[in-house]
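Prompt: May I have another protein with tokenized structure?
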Amino acid sequence: RRTPPVPRAPRQALNRDLAVLLMRSSYNAVDELDFVPMDEFQQKFFLLRQREWEGYRDAAFKQLGRPPEQGELTDAAYFDFISYAQYATINECLASPRSVFEELVGAEGNRTLVYRSSGLRDGDLAPEHSRRVGDAILDFVSERFGDVYLSDDVRFGGVETNVRKMLEWLVVLGFADAVDVAMVAPDKLECKLLAPANLWGLRRLKGTRLMNDFAGKAVQAYLARSGFSGFRGANTLDATSSRHAFSGLKPTALQSSFFLEDYKL
């Protein structure tokens, strides 16, 4: 697969707390789902970064006139790479998931036997990982900017307004430059993010079991908590933006709707 170019358009500095949350929640979901020993995961993650970093750094320098600031999660050019590397490693492990394995615990070299929950089949792992990360993002944004509460209002206009507000908060946190949200059909919601911090990684991971589509995961978490079920999500990408579409939204499935309180920048 051809490696996409590093985005040339300037991107915002990413809020450090959000960047850490995105990386940590993605790691924690792997640990909680028990399909790979975490010492093995960390080794694979390290080796993948080592293999791909120099090529990415050189490509970024040609596009941006500067190298990414290695280790600095607030630099979108670096976050884009490290998030991609994390999800590429997760996908490598998802290709042959285990249900029973030994895992290294502590610095003394002790090992423990780990059993995956019998209710988690191999095919459940990727969607469950996405669900957990999406919930973590939604919780983070809600706690950061104010209360989120349930309402009996089931109008689609409320859903569109609330999803737009949630994604605008991600813009405030430096995750993207701008967002656009619209109900394009009675049962279809579309969200567009301009210059998101994960754009290169999304394009690189396209077609894999699990993508680092953080905005899409957050919207999915919002829709699920609002009572929607059975909807379908799809991503489309270009050189400057990512689009997330959710179709099959049915008002009969809506039991409650979030209302996100107004805020001032």
In short: The CA atoms of residues 29 and 247 lie 26 Å apart. The beta strands are 100-105, 110-115, 148-151, 178-185, 188-194, 232-237, 241-247, 257-260.
